[in-house]
Each structure stands twice: as C-alpha cells, then as structure tokens.
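dude i think i finally got it to work??
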Amino acid sequence: MKKTTLLIMAAGIGSRFGTGIKQLEPVGMNNEIIMDFSIHDAIKAGFNKIVFVIRPDIESDFKERIGDRVEEICGKMNVEVAYTFQTIDAIPGEFPQGRTKPWGTGQAVLSAKPLIHGPFAVINADDYYGKNAFQIMHDWLILDHAENAIAMAGFILKNTLSDHGGVTRGVCKVVEGHTHVIDVVETSNIVKTEVGAEADGVVLDPESYVSMNFWGFPAKENSDPWYMEVLDEGFTEFFKTTVPANPLKAEYLLPTHIGGLLRDGKVTVKVLETNDKWFGVTYQEDKAVVIESIRNLIEGGVYAEDLYSDL
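look at this
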C-alpha cells in the first residue's frame, strides 16, 4: 500500500479571530484542539506522515501546545512527523516594500515541497472535517491515478457558514451527477441569509459544493507529485502577473490556482462526497459551537473521551 502524507496548514494569522492563535484554542474534553481530531482521523484512516506548516514566530507555542504531544503519539504508531515554515520572504521575485500579509495557501503548500514524496492531502488546521472525509481521501490516494488528477472532499455550502460573520469559500461548479468539479471560484464575505447565502449581495445556491481546502494529490510511491511542480511554476507566474498590480495584498490561493487549471483543461477534480458535517473557528464566537459539537460527537460514541486511546 502506498504511503500517504497529510499536510496541515497551520500558519494562518487568524486576524478575524481576535486575540490568541485560533489553531491552538482548546475545544475537546481534555483540552484537545481541532487539529487533534484531524490528526486522530488521519492516523485512523491510514496516513503515514504528518507535515505541519507553521510560522517561525509560533513554533514554540505550537510545539508546546500540540507538536511535542503529537510526535509522541505518532512515534508509537509509526507515523512520521515533520515541520516546515511558511515565511513571507520565500518568494520567486523581489519582495514588495511594506508587505506584511502572508502569500496564501499556495505558498503554504509549496513550503513543504522538499518533504513530500508520494501522494498527499492538504487541510486547514482550524477546520473539522470528520472521520469519513479522511477515510475516503486516503482510500483515493492509495489508488493509481493520472498525474493531473486531483480530489476534493466535497462539503455543502449551507453547512459551512458562520453565524457570526462572513467567510471565504471555494464555490464549485460540478457536472451533472456531482462527480467532478469543472470550476472553483474563491468567494469572500459569504454570509447566511433567511433563504440561504449570499456574497456582497450576490445570491448563492446554499446546496453548492464548496472547497474547505481538503485536497488530495496523487503520485507514484516515492515520487514527487506532479502538482507540486505545477504549483511552483504558478507561483513564479503569479509574481510576474498578479503581484505587480496588488503588491501588498495579492495572495496565491489553492482554490484559485486549481480553478485556473480546471478552466485551462489541465487537471481533473474528483468530488469525494462526505456525509460528515464540517465546523470550524473563524470568529471567537464560533468556539462555543465547536465545543458543543465535539461534546456531542463524544457522547454519540464517534470519539473516545480520551481521544487517542482507540488507535
């Protein structure tokens, strides 16, 4: 069976969250954070390696809060753990004076390029995806696919919104039968309405599939994924064509990059339908909902109160 890697993007500043680092907020019965549940579900599904993408300035807090503990657990399970840094100056061009904003999820994934040799999946650190999502993604990754095939865990827009403000989602267009994505549009400021959802006054279908940045990229065993090379090439092009027009705020985002490849006919994106309900922490007020949701899952027998005890 192919070895598979889970790449966890945990370098986000979390400016909308307020004080603290939202990826490290405790939500479980024993102060587990959302990331703990993703790591548990990934190990349970069969992933063999965990790679954390973090910032240098949160390294100490990160390792104290979760990294050291996860390394100990993974060591017992023969699961490798590695770290990589997303830094603002690791770019294929001249650094724009005054830039303080990170370069986005595309650069986050690229920071792990030297550590990825084989099929891999990507997730956000502050999203709960559910056991089923990890299992179906792992089972897809261990199969043989064309090098330009991509998989996306498909969530329904109405199930991914916050009661406390706007969110950003990769809104997907799918072919009839809901099996493949034909376009992804990164859409900001999506809010709940009485009848569904809208973004800046534009009505959205609440039943649409959205990307929650849970992507899968195939590769042969011990081979570098094709997508990493394409993502790297795209980052260079991004600096030539996009950054000059908006040097302080332009971002290199996975859904935007994949959407462009789809429109150019260079990739296929398979929708992996999951029946799990997503939840996450975008705003400080979301934390109470997440804590209650986790508690309900534990009481329902989905997880043990001592999370990792069933591995």
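The chain has seven helices and 13 strands.
im so relieved honestly
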